[in-house]
Amino acid sequence: MGRRLVALLLLFLPGFAQKVRVVAASDLQYALPEVARAFERKNPGVKVELVFGSSGKLYAQLTQGLEADLFFSADKAYPELLEQRGLAEPGTRKPYALGRVVLWVDRKLGLKPGPEALKDPRVTQLALANPVHAPYGRAAVTLLEHLGLLRRKDVPLPGLAKPFPLLSWEEIPWERLTGGVEAYWDATPLRQGKPRFAFVYGENISQTAQLALAATRVGLLALSLAVHESLSGAGAYWLAPLGSHLPLEQDYLVLKGRGRPEVLAFHAYVGSPEARAVFRRYGFLLPGE
User: Fold this and answer.
1) pLDDT tens digits for the chain (289 residues)?
2) 3-97+250-281 with 101-239: one CATH topology?
3) What residue spans define the domains of the chain?
4) CATH architecture under which domain 3-97+250-281 falls
């Protein structure tokens, strides 16, 4: 009897649960558990374990041997890199969503959410995900640049084909920008008329949301988190237009050697109408729509 057939039979044995270990970008903190629970209801012999973090840090851990079956990124670049390194099951990298960025503002500030709010003297801190390894942080920085609130500095970065100010958003070597946003961008438009101003960095977009809620009162966040009651009750948001920041085309894949039947079943379920409805409810745009 083949190994795959044995695994399938075991799914239906009482008390025997197959585990699917998923590592995922933290913008999925609320949506993916719903998808996993719905999958488990249809597949009672399978348990989906979820671990969330920043896409860049999860990618680095996967290249160092982190045990996982599937990887959900907040961009397509990290899954592509895993493919290039031979760490993905061939043919399993697929898009599952397009992420959206919002400017979230605590209602207690009394400000209307939108780009102009960032110039208000009451906004002295702004939470964003660390752009070194978080795709939503990169989207946040490029949004501020698009709005004219950040201006790129002509900083020397050895090895670049052209000066830093002339790089497209996709060409920016984000992993090398470890000095903080203001080492590479002039934030004068955000500082004018204020007693002080500072960026406050979250290690991932979920931690960034917590920082905005508990400390900074303003943040550039994922729409998928802002629509959750934990944030929607305390604040309001402005949705950044598509094309105003680095795109958040989000891919997922099965890791090399992890294509067990239960893993492939969950991989397929993510593209089902039921799963797509969950992603849509949390504000994601979906492939083919």
Assistant:
1) 444 544 444 454 444 579 999 999 999 999 999 999 999 999 999 999 999 999 999 999 999 999 999 999 999 999 999 999 999 999 999 999 999 999 999 999 999 999 999 999 999 999 999 999 999 999 999 999 999 999 999 999 999 989 999 999 999 999 999 999 999 999 999 999 999 999 999 999 999 999 999 999 999 999 999 999 999 999 999 999 999 999 999 999 999 999 999 999 999 999 999 999 999 999 999 998 8
2) yes
3) 3-97+250-281, 101-239
4) 3-Layer(aba) Sandwich (3.40)
Which of the listed CATH numbers 3.40.50.1950, 3.40.50.300, 3.30.70.2210, 3.40.190.10 matches domain 101-239? Answer: 3.40.190.10
User: Would you say 55 is a known binding-site residue?
Assistant: yes
Long-range contacts of 262-265 (CB under 8 A, 24+ apart): 262/7, 262/11, 262/18, 262/19, 262/20, 262/43, 262/45, 262/46, 263/20, 263/69, 263/70, 265/39, 265/43, 265/46
Q: What is the pTM of this model?
A: 0.93
